[in-house]
């Protein structure tokens, strides 16, 4: 593909956000497992996959705007891209176990109880806007289209209610995230162009959840 791929506003204001990193846990290796053969097959499968999703091997390019107004254009260029690299790294078992234990032994209720009762805390839900648009976007749209919705409350209010109350607050935020609100977010961004910084998306007083199937498309009731 010789022409550059221009980014949508949803891609542009997320430019400074780090790449999504996810881990996959597999079954314990069998005696006949060979890492070299596994990597060879993995590399082959990824190559086949990227032939269908070629923008993932493109490179970001910044150039001056043709309007000569001092602005710049960020786009994807696939012609001179060296492709995607497969990097094999082997962490120690101790490091992996410590990372998993730290991730799943966190007690949010205990931490919240240490905060002042009037302190505002929140929960951010990363939602896919594709199914919420009216009319819906074309299924082949490959760009970014997510929003982190933040529901906030005071510590005392959260601890003074039961779990159902908290779930309902999140449910209201999901149900209210509709076409009109999404377009309003876009309109506000177009009036004051900005690239979001990490501290605007993540903060130490919020819990963020993403990649939930219940946040894909239209909202479902909390349960």
Automatic annotation (TrEMBL):
Keywords: Transferase. The keyword Transferase applies. It comes from the Eukaryota. InterPro entries: CAT-like_dom_sf, Sec_Metabolite_Acyltrans. GO terms for molecular function: transferase activity. Pfam families: Transferase. This is Uncharacterized protein.
């Amino acid at each position: 593909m010789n022409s550059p791929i221009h980014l949508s506003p949803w891609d542009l204001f997320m430019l400074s956000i780090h790449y999504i990193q996810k881990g996959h846990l597999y079954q314990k290796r069998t005696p006949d497992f060979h890492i070299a053969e596994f990597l060879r097959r993995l590399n082959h499968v990824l190559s086949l996959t990227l032939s269908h999703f070629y923008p993932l091997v493109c490179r970001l390019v910044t150039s001056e705007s043709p309007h000569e107004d001092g602005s710049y254009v960020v786009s994807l260029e696939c012609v001179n891209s060296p492709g995607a690299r497969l990097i094999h790294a082997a962490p120690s078992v101790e490091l992996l176990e410590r990372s998993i234990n730290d991730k799943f032994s966190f007690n949010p209720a205990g931490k919240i109880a240490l905060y002042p009762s009037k302190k505002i805390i929140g929960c951010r839900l990363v939602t896919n806007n594709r199914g919420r648009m009216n009319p819906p976007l074309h299924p082949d749209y490959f760009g970014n289209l997510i929003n982190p919705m933040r529901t906030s409350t005071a510590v005392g209010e959260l601890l003074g209610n039961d779990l159902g109350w908290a779930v309902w607050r999140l449910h209201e935020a999901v149900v209210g995230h509709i076409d009109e609100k999404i377009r309003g977010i876009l309109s506000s961004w177009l009036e004051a162009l900005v690239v979001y910084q990490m501290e605007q998306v993540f903060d130490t007083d919020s819990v963020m959840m993403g990649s939930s199937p219940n946040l894909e498309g239209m909202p479902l009731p909390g349960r």
